[in-house]
Amino acid sequence: RARETGSGFEYYHMEMKRDAQKRMVMVRELRKAVEDLHFLPYYQPQYSLHNGNILGMEVLVRWKHQDRGMIGPGEFIQLAEETGLIVPLGEWVLRTACMQWKEWRNKGLSPGKLAVNVSAKQFQQNDFVHKVESILEETGMDSQSLELEITESAAMYDTDKAVANIHALSDLGIAISIDDFGTGYLSFGYLKKFPIQKLKIERSFVRDLRADSDNEAIVSTIITMAHKLGMSVVAEGVETEEQAQVLRTHRCEGGQGYLFHQPMPAQDMEKLLKSNMNN
Ligand code: C2E
Ligand code: CA
Ligand code: CA
């Protein structure tokens, strides 16, 4: 209704202008940050729900903003995708995490699998597989320990290319997992066509997960079907022992979430890996 009055319209107009200006500033800052590499990789461990061992870790990027401190990806990944900046940024995240993984291995630690998020934009690049291959070579990262997380929409977009890319990566020994599973439109029939090793159950299904809840029905269906297709399952956003218990009942292999650990800088992850070796 505000738009009907003159001043209301003006107000609305000003708001839009301000949003557009904010966005322009943000794009400029983001571009500069990508040039200057003002980002930090955080690592969040994934645990076996059966024996409590660390299965691996996911790398989650943070923007080290000069005035605003550490900014989470929720605030800039979409913009990075829209502007194409996700391509160099994603490549940097992959290279940095692979280097870190290799360093941990050289120190005699067991970081397990390294999971890296790949956006649809990256996945669509013609030279994506080649880039991954050269990063593996350059860093000495073991391809068998690398896992790329792609969303359902990235797997569906331009299907022929997606299928070809997944096969090519798989031939290199790299595992593919489907991120945020359950939020998109991928059918199990479609999934069967891909060499996919893992499904990650989207956090929103885990949030209200209790015995005999609707979410329990959804989660147990996903797990059963995934297992029938030979895939393993990791649940995102596990915050309570009760959620972990329900997931365990349904034979979900892995869990990731605040119940275990929040994402952390490399030094903290290194301490965790060390303490894990000692007991
Ligand atoms: P995602 O891949 O679904 O990552 C999981 C998100 O859930 C992370 O948010 C993580 O910090 C958060 N999380 C983990 N455990 C819990 C929990 O127990 N409770 C709650 N409430 N949250 C939990 P984050 O780090 O803010 O990342 C958000 C999203 O940004 C990621 O969602 C991913 O889609 C994207 N992202 C992060 N890093 C990258 C990257 O390097 N490349 C690309 N393309 N996307 C990235
Ligand atoms: Ca992910
Ligand atoms: Ca998610």
TrEMBL record:
Residues 23-277 form the EAL domain. This is GGDEF domain-containing protein. The chain holds residues 305 to 583 of 592 of the full protein.
